[in-house]
Amino acid sequence: MGGFLRVFPARAAVSATLGIELVRVRGVWHEQVNNEEAEAVVQAIRHFTVNYPELSLGVVTMNSKQRDLIEQKIDDLEDASLVKYRTDWDKKHESFFVKNLENVQGDERDVIFISFGWGRTKEGAFHQRFNLVNRADGHRRLNVLFTRAKRKIVIFTGLEPKNIIYEEGRSARGVRVLREYLEYAESIDRRTRSDNDNGSGPADFDPGDPDSPFEQSVGEALRASGYRFRYQVGAAGYRIDIGILYPESDNSYAVGIECDGATYHRAASTRDRDRLRQEALERLGWKILRIWSTDWFRDWRGQINRLKIEIDAALVMLADSAPGRLVTTDFATETSSPGSLTEMDSSVAGDQEAIHPIASDDEIAIDKPPSPREADTSIADRLRQFRETTIMVDFPGSEPQRCILREEMISQFIAKLVVDPADFTARIPEHLRTRTDGRQVRYLERICEIISQPRGETG
Hints:
Strand content: 5-15%
Mean pLDDT: 77
Oligomer: single chain
Number of helices: 15
Shape: elongated
Order of helices and strands: EEEHEHHEEHEHHEEEHHEHHEHHHHH
Largest sheet: 6 strands, mixed
């Protein structure tokens, strides 16, 4: 949009095969190659092919000489596991490659290793040349490079952002992109080290800062309901207002909540705000919920009950694939720490004095929600009861496998959170709908009422 690349936040925690990893290598830049960095890359390739043979891999260098050096070191290894890895992926038509920046366009792999190469000379000097990046289209080449990985990028470099000098109006735009990307990777590295070293308990967990008093209001109600979350999840290009964390995780998100606050209104158009953003986030595994300020201030208790039902249903649906805590890799020859696809720093915007519908502690009447399994069982049992006492009584001779509340449909109703009859067509897969007894669609309204009903209520 507007010539800028928007980065959407990842839902899952970083791991050995997901995110951005910054590997510091104390190498020397000599005759347009960095031998120490090339060696670190080759050892990382060897480790990768042994431990992650199910993932495709590509290596990109900033010039052809560094590429040739890495290829030569790979050939010198004569490693049987690497030979097998290359043969297997040749058959899958996603061959392992080592390419320089100029030739990488169009290639995608699960994991991309990047060798910048640039560094100080033997004399300690640092040259500001940066090859292709310093050209007029250098920023476009970097944008292509940074989008080649489907799962993870590992950057090998001795560069620090402060080593890169950018002068507005004089330096190429690619130089600025290079420096900002390194700053981004460094911020991830710092955050990951902090999370690994300290860990956050209930007492010291910091959710960050909200973008508006409305978000703060929603966050306080969520905290009173027992949920842990972070405000403003993501990178500067796009942030999710509130990310609900998995239980016992500080880095994995189950649900994203979008408020109609500053982030929403900064979107360029309604189409961008709603359909395109939603599709992009869902492809990354997010379950996105929305809450409107008018509804919140009119009936915050009703809205928090709705959010609790939807959050608990999402936790149940994602429980089996819930990402774990951080996994430290050993790609580097010195130090290695995985980063996240999303920077989770927060930004403060607007007046932080809360405009909160909860006037005092005495007014907070939100019970701590039961565990996701308990919430799921409660809804499922009520649906089963409705099936046995109403649907099967009304249709005594109907086929159980075509019942609108057969077990697989109950799971779908809860997982997809069908709270409106229109959701049946929009959210339930067609192959399940077509196998359902059409006469029983008349029960949709009652089914939606059961799913929407706050826990503890019956009717």
